[in-house]
Design a protein that fits this description.
The complex is a heterodimer of chains A (526) and B (236). Chain A has 526 residues and is mostly helical. Chain A has helices spanning 2-16, 18-23, 27-60, 66-92, 98-102, 108-142, 148-158, 161-177, 184-213, 217-227, 229-238, 242-274, 293-307, 309-331, 333-342, 349-362, 378-383, 388-417, 424-451, 460-464, 468-491, 496-517, 519-524. The longest helix of chain A is centred in the N-terminal third of the chain and has 35 residues, at 108-142. The radius of gyration of chain A is 24 Å and the shape is globular. In chain A, 45% of the residues are buried. Chain B has 236 residues and is an alpha/beta fold. Chain B has a six-stranded mixed sheet with strand order 6-7-8-3-9-10, with helices on both faces. In chain B, helix 4 (107-120) runs antiparallel to helix 5 (136-148). The longest helix of chain B has 16 residues, at 166-181. Chain B is globular and about 50 Å long. The chains are: A mainly alpha (526), B alpha/beta (236). Chains A and B meet through helix 13 and helix 17 of A and helix 2, helix 3 and helix 4 of B.
């Protein structure tokens, strides 16, 4: 048990970097670590706040209390499942300190359990952020039976278990199936993207129907149970059904035990298979084509990006969503136009288009962890005879080329499809604001990462999912959506959005110039 | 080729990792750099290569100040760390081709040099594999090839023999001699005193960041073996 505690402590230290905060003599490194923890805290507060507002509004207006539990638990579970699917295999079996751990006198089941706990703990934190406020508001407003108080925390702790098991199990199977393929990263990333996109599109049906089931739990039950049935047991269990609570607790615990048992039995061969490299037979030197320095640096960025499944899954979703939205918007523009008129919300069309495009374009820029992803190989970038400006430009280019084309496509398709709802000022706003937001997020993401680099990591997940700069950019993206859309929406002044776009463009230019001016210093200080 | 004048480097508020170090490496030198763990060898090498900023002093590479014109200096030198973390997402060939692009080596020359050094280190058949699948020794070999194909005027190596098999170590020694005959300067750190004694024409000993002895091997060593001298200096 002591070994287990030590392993858990080790992993939590790697996420939250407590030893760095406590012992590092480098003030900058210490500050970065503190900022990382603060960013995680802010995310938890934002999620909690959103959950609290939603729960309060629903319960206080007479909606069945199970509905907010159901909605939030489903969202939290989908989030946990997506995260586990993106990174589960690497965390459970392909981790970098495998040799060190396996060489120690620690029983394998403990290592397996600790790795599972490691994966679970972060998701549990976010699930708690979502559902603790909901539970507190329910307890205050509805005065539940006494057994709610001991049972709800247990259910809350178990909520991420099933999605983590399903997500990481699927990831392990997928990774193992293509482990010996030359293109294993590309194939698994593509399959994951397709599956996740399918799931997201499916989940999108959920909020669309939410207005209908606000007052009709029966319909909510039927919709949500199709998406994720355990959330229904959770919601019913939390709001008075002891049998559902028991079903949820026993089912989650049993699935977890079964998964850990299977993983324990297959741990070594699975790791062996996952880490088996692809070896070329009868290799001959290739064409060795020559290219310029920027092109070569960009190629490195591209290969580094597509080699990291966690990075791809985390960032490319926005780009794909934009393209899907653009094409779907154009394809169903007739129906949507009728719907907008029927609901008398034509005036909000430009704000909705702008907001959605900005959200998707800025959801997670590659630049927010592009410097951190250099990792210990940073010595290469530092010793190359290329200017730091060029090195940074390659990173900026990666995000712009990843998101830019689909954003431009969506802007063209959506503005043409919904032109009848847009005034000249609206049109200018819908075109300019997402482009300005993309440019700003791209350069600002790199700036934030330069301020908060994390170059020592064992798994890319630590950088892509848990580093301070990524979390700061997640909050910045949400803030940018609010800043871009709300002023025009609240004031009714349509020209405000283009004016804000101009201001954001100026801010982007200022950050870019700052980056270029200090490029050498940024690289030197890493 | 390399001139270090009064180099001072500290980490944060800590003690000086390198304290007023001055050293000159000339073209054709194989200059060994020895010292106990934490003496400041790697810090010195990282300062020279432009990886680390330093507090005071001057570092000139073929007359070029690394602080004033780092690009020109980096174009003529190459540094390989003791544990080279390479781009694991590239194949060996992809990594070498990337370096050739950065150093502007034409296609014919890069092919010729890659073939030459990959054959010397016996990893031709592995160049199509991902670097992530390489062992430590193979990464070391690939990093060395990456440095050699550039034909640098100054080659700096941090513990270059760690992880190399005996044959590769022998090959590296031969290549080092060959490079120096052609006017290249090599400055490398090592803990293997026998290797330093046989390979180097000059040697520098660093202790707690300060240079305690430096110069031609015979002068520094005197009548002692390098090991005896090192132990004697360590005990002082």
């Amino acid at each position: 048990m002591k070994s287990f505690r030590t392993l858990i402590k080790l992993y939590l230290n790697s996420i939250f970097r407590f030893p760095v905060i406590r012992y590092s003599r480098d003030a900058r490194e210490r500050r970065n670590a503190v900022m990382g923890v603060v960013a995680i805290g802010l995310i938890v507060v934002v999620y909690g706040g959103m959950s609290a507002i939603t729960s309060y509004q629903m319960i206080s207006t007479g909606v069945d209390p199970a509905v907010p539990f159901l909605m939030i638990a489903t969202m939290a579970s989908i989030f946990a499942l997506a995260m586990a699917f993106a990174q589960g295999g690497a965390t459970l079996s392909g981790f970098a300190d495998f040799d060190t751990l396996m060489g120690m006198p620690i029983p394998i089941p403990l290592i397996v359990l600790a790795r599972f706990f490691a994966l679970y703990s972060v998701e549990a934190l976010y699930c708690a952020a979502y559902l603790v406020p909901c539970g507190v508001i329910y307890a205050i407003l509805c005065a539940p039976a006494w057994w709610f108080y001991p049972v709800f925390p247990v259910m809350l702790l178990l909520l991420p278990v099933v999605p983590v098991v399903i997500g990481s199990g699927a990831d392990l199977l997928l990774s193992a199936a293509f482990a010996r393929s030359k293109y294993k990263k590309g194939i698994t990333s593509a399959i994951k993207m397709i599956l996740l996109m399918g799931f997201i599109i499916f989940a999108y049906m959920f909020p669309q129907l939410s207005s209908r089931f606000i007052h009709a739990l029966g319909e909510a039950v039927s919709v949500t149970s199709r998406i994720y049935p355990p959330a229904l047991w959770f919601a019913k269990g939390a709001t008075g059904s002891f049998s559902h609570a028991a079903l949820f607790i026993i089912g989650s615990a049993a699935l977890c035990a079964l998964f850990v048992l299977i993983l324990n039995r297959t741990f070594l061969p699975l790791h062996d298979r996952l880490t088996a490299g692809y070896h070329v037979k009868n290799y001959r030197l290739g064409s060795l084509r020559r290219s310029g320095a920027l092109q070569a640096l960009f190629r490195i960025e591209r290969k580094r990006f597509f080699n990291s499944t966690a990075w791809v899954v985390n960032t490319i979703i926005g780009s794909i969503l934009i393209a899907v939205l653009g094409i779907a918007g154009a394809a169903f523009s007739g129906t949507l136009s009728v719907l907008l008129k029927q609901m008398s919300v034509e005036a909000y069309a430009s704000a909705a288009l702008t907001g959605v495009l900005i959200f998707c374009a800025t959801i997670s820029p590659t630049t927010s962890c592009a410097i951190s992803m250099e990792g210990k190989g940073i010595w290469i970038a530092k010793t190359l005879p290329v200017s730091a400006k060029l090195w940074l430009r390659a990173k900026l280019l990666m995000n712009l080329l990843l998101v830019g084309p689909s954003l431009l496509l969506a802007i063209v398709l959506l503005t043409v499809s919904f032109r009848s709802f847009l005034t000249a000022a609206d049109l200018l706003g819908v075109v300019l604001m997402p482009i300005a937001a993309l440019l700003f997020t791209t350069v600002f993401g790199l700036y934030v990462n330069a301020c908060m680099p994390r170059l020592t990591w064992k798994s890319d997940t630590e950088v892509v999912k848990q580093s301070g700069s990524v979390l700061v950019m997640l909050l910045s993206g949400l803030g940018l959506v609010a800043v871009s859309v709300l002023p025009a929406l609240l004031s009714g002044l349509h020209w405000l959005t283009p004016a804000i776009a101009a201001a954001v463009l100026c801010a982007a230019a200022a950050v870019y110039l700052h980056l270029m001016k200090n490029a050498e210093q940024i690289r030197r200080n890493l | 080729m390399l001139e270090i004048r009064n180099l001072i480097k500290s980490y944060g508020n800590g003690p000086r990792a390198v304290d007023d170090l001055s050293l000159t490496v000339e073209a054709g030198d194989i200059y060994g750099f020895i010292g106990h763990n934490g003496a400041g060898k790697t810090t010195t090498l990282r300062c020279i290569s432009g990886i680390l900023p330093f507090d005071a002093g001057e570092i000139l590479i073929d007359g070029i100040d690394i602080r004033k014109d780092p690009m020109s200096a980096k174009r003529i030198m190459r540094y390989i760390p003791d544990n080279p973390d390479l781009y694991t997402f590239l194949t060996g060939e992809g990594y070498l081709n990337f370096l050739c692009d950065i150093y502007g080596i034409d296609e014919e020359t890069r092919r010729e040099r890659i073939q030459q050094y990959a054959a010397a280190f016996e990893i031709e058949s592995k160049l199509g594999d991902l670097v992530g699948s390489y062992s430590h020794g193979m990464c070391q070999k690939l990093a060395l090839i990456g440095a050699l194909i550039q034909r640098p005027k100054l080659l700096m190596l941090d513990e270059p023999f760690v992880g190399l098999d005996p044959k590769a170590a022998h090959t590296l020694k031969s290549i080092m001699h060959e490079l120096c005959e052609n006017g290249c300067a090599i400055f490398f750190s090592t803990h293997v005193l026998e290797v330093a004694e046989k390979l180097c024409n000059k040697i520098a000993i660093i202790k707690n960041g300060k240079l305690v002895k430096a110069g031609p091997m015979d002068e520094v060593r005197g009548d002692n073996s390098l090991e005896e001298l090192f132990l004697e200096l360590s005990d002082e």
